[in-house]
């Protein structure tokens, strides 16, 4: 049960960071193509991690 609580907490943090990145991208806060690529890379990594966590949670049920 403790692992599930940790996974849910991580998913919440991942989702919040994804939202922050999307707001930054949509708000015109990107200064260069390098910043854009960094944010897209981070977003891709977060989404992959989120998918992995959800997959593990489904197999635990």
Explain what the structure shows.
The chain has one domain. The chain is elongated. The protein is mainly alpha-helical and 61 residues long. It is built from two helices and no strands. The chain has helices at residues 2-26, 33-60.
Could you give the topology of this structure?
Blueprint: H1 2-26, H2 33-60
Helix pairs in contact: 1-2
Mean pLDDT: 92
What general outline do the C-alpha atoms trace?
A: elongated
In DSSP terms (H or I, runs of 4 or more residues), the helix count works out at 2
Low-confidence stretches: none
Order of helices and strands: HH
Q: Roughly what fraction of the amino acids lie in strands?
A: under 5%
Coarse structural class? mainly alpha
Q: What's the Cα radius of gyration?
A: 14 Å
Total individual domains? 1
Report the biggest beta sheet as strand number plus sense, adding barrel if it closes.
Answer: none
Straight-line distance between termini: 11 Å
Strand count: 0
Helix content: over 70%
Task: Summarize this structure as a short list of keywords or feature phrases.
61 residues, 2 helices, elongated
Produce a short descriptive summary.
The chain has about 60 residues and is an all-alpha fold.
């Amino acid at each position: 049960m403790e692992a599930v609580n940790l996974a849910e907490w991580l998913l919440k943090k991942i989702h919040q960071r994804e939202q922050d990145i999307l707001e930054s991208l949509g708000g015109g806060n990107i200064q260069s193509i390098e910043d854009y690529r960094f944010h897209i890379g981070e977003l891709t990594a977060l989404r992959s991690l989120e998918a992995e966590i959800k997959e593990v949670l489904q197999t635990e049920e």
